[in-house]
Amino acid sequence: MHAHTSIATVIELPNWSPEERAVFHSCFRAWCSQASSDEFDKLEQLREQVAPGEVCSMVRLVRAGFRQPDLRDQLPAALVGLLQERRLLPASSAVQGA
Questions:
Q1: pTM of the model
Q2: Kind plus residue range of the DSSP H or E element containing 31
Q3: Is residue 39 helix, strand or coil?
Q4: How far apart, in whole angstroms, are the C-alpha atoms of residue 29 and residue 34?
Q5: DSSP symbol at 10
Q6: Exposure of 54 in the CB half-sphere (CA atoms within 13 A)
Q7: DSSP states of 41-56
Q8: For residues 83 and 78, what is the distance between their CA atoms, to the nearest angstrom?
């Protein structure tokens, strides 16, 4: 966690079941099939912040990015929207109230 991120602003996400992880990967594949190169670049830039120089699973990357307010805006909006539709991530209104 970044030193300037307050514990109170970090969103806690429940662990996903194997079924939910499978839904995540389905959503991720759907997003990949229509994402622009700019969106892929945005996700790669986020990966460099979350796990610099490391191999990082997409599940870990998206969850880490979503949990931290200073990283959340760096996630591609279309991917976040798909995951919110499938109830894997809280809706925007729930996040803003956190």
A1: 0.79
A2: helix 18-34
A3: helix
A4: 9
A5: S
A6: 11
A7: HHHHHHHHHHSTTS--
A8: 9
pLDDT at 2 over 60: no
How far apart CA 84 and CA 13 sit, in angstroms, is 13
What is the CB-side half-sphere exposure of residue 59 using CA atoms within 13 A? Answer: 15
Closest CA to 85 of 18, 32, 26, 33: 26
Unique residue bearing structure tokens 């991530």: 89
Mean pLDDT of the chain: 85
Q: For residue 59, which of 91, 24, 15 has the smallest C-alpha distance?
A: 24
Residue 49 and residue 35: Cα distance in Å, rounded?
Answer: 21
Q: What one-letter code names the amino acid at 87? A: R
- pLDDT, tens only, 16-47: 999 999 999 999 999 999 999 999 999 999 99
